[in-house]
Queue: 3 jobs
Job 1
Amino acid sequence: MRTVLDTNVLVSTLLFRGRTTGVHRAILEGRLLPLLTEPILREYLRVLAYPKLQLTELEITYLLNEEIRPWFHMINEPVPTESWISEDPSDDHFVNAARVRPDTHLISGDRHILDARTRLPVPVLTVREVLDRLEKTLE
């Protein structure tokens, strides 16, 4: 399943245990193919550098080179730049990236995205919803 991971999902997947561990496992098993754009990568790196996460530059570099770049597919074609989330325009990068390839899902826990999901041009799933779908495909 092609996906775009919102930043909150990426951070939880890489740094914390819990439900998002299943997302990480699905990426490593090839059941999820996360898509990436340069603006999304910049957003990931910006958030990983937040002081509250207490990551060193070396740890961020490790996450980038070992956990993101090998597993995420960089979108090289033009990405639309339409506005979708007026409350947080930075979320538009995720919506627009998911629009580039058919059947791409946006995985998010962001309130702005989840509140707008019925009017967005891409399917939006929570972590629980994507894990439920993956579980059903194994049955």
Job 2
Amino acid sequence: MRVLAIGAHPDDIEFGCAGTLVNLARNGHETFMLVMTKGGSGGDREGRGQEQLASQQILQVSKLFLGDYEDTRVPNSKEVIDSIEAVINEVAPSMIFVNYTEDTHQDHRNLALSTLSAARHIRTVLFYEVPSTLGFTPQVFSDISNVYAIKEAALKAHASQLSKTNVEGLTILDTARGAAHFRGIQGRALLAEAFHVMRAWLAIDRHDSRGGVRLA
């Protein structure tokens, strides 16, 4: 498969689905990332862009598409839909991961809504969670126990953001591990990532590479 992960800001994808991307790459699937902003409201734009490039290398992602929208100002608009669709047309993914539609951050909400339109022909679309996600009810779980150290290394690549949790003494690494343990308990694994389904196909035939969620 060719798999596209979409995030509003640098480190969204790392928190939400980095472990799953690593396991996909290790199993021969080609992975891509689209990050819509350089996160200028959370730090230096160019510095955060470089952090995202470092994370790309850690996650073995084939190509990073780094957008130039202003942080906090990503709209749900035809322009955003078209920009996402242009990447979809280039990558031709059969599976997409993206921010969830319910979130306290407007960029996450608007990106998710625009992706609903841009990914209308994609067979499998899964929403991931980040710390600002609301009302998240996952139906699909991914065991990342074997690759959690790589997920953590990718998060550490975003060094400027590690302490920005708005909770004294808590880092993004603490938050990510807590979420992975909780979703692991729900999914019957040590550490897991969890996803809310927009649309998913079961790929029962092991030769089917069109983007189904495979039966264990």
Job 3
Amino acid sequence: MAAPQDNTQAILRVIRRLGVVRPVDLERLGIPRGGLYRLVRKGLVERQARGIYVATRHQLTAGHALAQVAKRVPGGVFCLLTALRFHELTTQNPAEVWIALPEKARKPRLDYPRLRVARFSGAALTEGVEAHLVEGVEVRVYSAAKTVADCFKYRNKVGIDVAVEALRDFGRRHRGGASELARFARVCRVSRVMQPYLDATA
């Protein structure tokens, strides 16, 4: 339902419900950009990054950067160190947000947060994607098992020690997940690479 252009509180309620918004999100609901910019001038809404807005006193979560990136790069999937962190499979705290994109997709230009783009293709791009809700925003993240396999595939980028740590943590947190792990090892074509580490942690 379209909100009246001068209905400040109604527009503010919509922004609070959506959590993290872009002007185009509001335009789809019949709210013109002028309504958003008036709220910014009144101090009721804050611009966090180019094209990204939240209500003042919006409760930020640990996944706030993911919500921002998901709004700006809806075709991406959070992967590798960022996905490990999301699934609590690492002690690493990456300074960049890792996101998977198709090989020919244009690299996004974000002023914040910093992105690290990994190029995926075929089943390695499309399999194992989960959708989670973070601050009202749908965030796409590779599953825990898929992420572990990805870390072995991209071990030259993240480090073999990070991949092995993730494998051990996965074994502790997801008992009975061996078949899922084996499936994604095949998808990522790293079954032979992973097998010695799987044997060592069995």
